[in-house]
Specification:
Strand order of the largest sheet of chain A: 5-4-9-8-7
Helix content of chain A: 40-55%
Largest sheet of chain A: 5 strands, antiparallel
Radius of gyration of chain A: 47 Å
Shape of chain B: globular
Oligomer: heterodimer
Distance between the termini of chain B: 25 Å
Order of helices and strands of chain B: EHEHEEEHE
Helix content of chain B: 25-40%
Number of domains of chain A: 3
Number of helices of chain A: 14
Largest sheet of chain B: 5 strands, mixed
């Protein structure tokens, strides 16, 4: 059957025979309504016919299933006047068990049982809406993951168009003076954006590397590049890998490695200074060994650390304080109180300290500071320490000298 | 004219429900500003019994119980003009009041 005009049904009879006979019958109201009833009854979508007051006059089995109610239960009840702006409206269809389905509602004016009526069709779109919601949530989850990363992430399709970015990437753009964020956001051409603003990648070689990964010529591309900013030079590590999945493209991550770079630089400087300290330790030990004959050294007292540990600890503490003060004096261009070091020298002399003990104290104090001080400070300690140690040795020597003079003076004249 | 009494049935805070509420607020505050109106919003997820008592089959449903004639509307409640037309509400003087259950 074919509908040519509203309310007019053209019937085709004997279309499989050798001769085709077509009978066109002028439709009567009852025939048209019967045909409409047959169509509506077998419609896969829920169909409810209401009068102008919204009272149910008919509903098909699909509508019964959708509403989860018997037709007899609803017949004669007020469903409501259907209001649609445009072609369709979405409604929630409530079921007796408290659940509901989402339905797309369309409305057509018809004549039903000789009265003006409205044919409401309800298409169950619950699954589609649930799928859309799930898809939206999955996309939101993916974006949340991207935004949780501190690396700047850009995902490109196979044409080089940006299909996803994270917040860190946009923040990076803002911080580097890009005012038109749309140029580096979803939908923009990444290579065009990089050609305009080189801060985004670091140079032409990088762009070629990205193109190689995009074309499948490289499994991965990575490089480090520096970027001059208002806060000084910053370093970034760029890594591009192919998008793993059905869609082709690449994922580019930019990681700010400025801190790691600085830390590595500081570690190298610190190691260099430590080596200097070790070298100085060797030199001083040798000087001490050469300063006394071997047999004398063995015959003398054992080290201050072993003999008088409390005196050694106090001297170490005092020497460390003087070292710190010496550093402050260097910064503020002031002078150390001259008596402080002389008093320490006399204190050590009263414990019969030797130059070796002074070297021991000095090295111990420097070692303590080398573990906690940045390289520049450690360098200053080493330089100031050398001067302080020499001066302290001078005071120790003066102390022993004055002791010797005093001893000589107190001896009775030789006969 | 007696007080305009409206009951809006919604199923949770869906975009459809929010659109319907906004339209009704706009209608009451502007088009029916001079009328004594009462709008009650019923969430059928929170109060399914009331929906069952009123034989609410779909949401959003808007019921005008006063003034007569009784009207029940289902579907897209985003057009103030369509709502006024179907609810048969020509403007008259009064005041408005909105409740939410």
């Amino acid at each position: 059957m074919k509908r040519s005009n509203p309310g007019i049904i053209t019937r085709c009879v004997g279309k499989h025979g050798p001769t085709r006979r077509i009978i066109i019958e002028p439709p009567t109201r009852s025939t048209a309504e019967e045909n409409l009833r047959a169509i509506v009854s077998h419609d896969a979508d829920g169909a409810i016919i209401v009068d102008n007051s919204g009272v149910v006059r008919f509903l098909n089995s699909a509508a019964e299933r959708l509403l989860d109610r018997h037709g007899a239960e609803l017949h004669g009840q007020v469903f409501g006047f259907p209001l649609v702006v445009g072609e369709r409206a979405e409604v929630e269809v409530l079921r007796p068990n408290g659940e509901f389905a989402v339905a797309e509602m369309r409305v057509v004016s018809i004549v039903w049982e000789g009265q003006d009526a409205l044919l409401i069709t309800l298409r169950d779109v619950t699954f589609e809406r649930q799928a859309e919601t799930a898809l939206r949530e999955a996309e939101e989850f993916s974006i949340t993951i991207l935004n949780s990363l501190t690396n700047e992430i850009v995902v490109l399709d196979e044409q080089g168009k940006i299909v996803a970015v994270n917040e860190a990437w946009l923040r990076f753009g803002r911080e580097n003076g890009i005012t038109d964020l749309a140029a580096i956001s979803v939908g923009a051409d990444y290579f065009a954006a990089c050609a305009v603003d080189k801060t985004l990648t670091g140079g032409i070689d990088v762009l070629q590397g990205l193109r190689d990964v995009l074309a499948g010529n490289k499994e991965e591309f990575s490089c480090e590049y520096e970027l001059p900013t208002s806060a000084g030079t910053r370093w970034f590590a760029l890594r591009a890998v192919p998008l793993r999945g059905k869609r082709r493209g690449i994922v580019i991550s930019h990681t700010d490695i400025t801190e790691q770079r600085r830390a590595a630089q500081l570690a190298a400087e610190a190691e260099m200074l430590r080596e200097q300290v070790r070298q100085m330790e060797r030199e001083l030990t040798n000087v001490d060994a050469l300063s006394r004959p071997e047999d004398t050294a063995r015959s003398r007292l054992s080290s201050l650390r072993q003999r008088l540990p409390e005196v050694f600890e106090y001297a170490l503490h005092r020497y460390g304080s003087l070292l710190d003060e010496a550093l402050q004096s260097r910064i503020h261009r002031t002078q150390l109180p001259p008596r402080a070091l002389r008093e320490l020298g006399e204190f050590l002399g009263s414990g019969w300290a030797t130059p070796r003990d002074l070297i021991d104290i000095h090295l111990q104090a420097i070692r303590q500071r080398s573990a906690q001080s940045p390289p520049k400070k450690l360098q200053a300690y080493v330089e100031e320490g050398r001067l302080l140690l020499l001066e302290l040795m001078g005071h120790l020597a003066s102390f022993y000298r004055s002791l010797a003079i005093g001893e000589l003076a107190s001896r009775p004249p030789e006969q | 004219m007696s007080k305009i009494v409206l009951h809006l049935y919604i199923a949770g805070q869906t975009p459809r429900a929010e659109r319907a509420i906004n339209t009704l607020r706009q209608m009451l505050e502007h088009d029916l500003a001079g009328y004594e109106c009462e709008l009650t919003i019923i969430d059928v997820l929170a109060d399914p019994q009331q929906a069952e008592d009123q034989k609410i089959l779909a949401t959003p449903t808007l019921i005008k119980s006063s003034p007569p004639p009784y009207r029940r509307i289902i579907g897209d409640l985003s057009s103030v003009a369509d709502l006024l037309n179907v609810l048969n509400l020509p403007p008259k003087t009064g005041s408005s009041m909105i409740n939410k259950e």
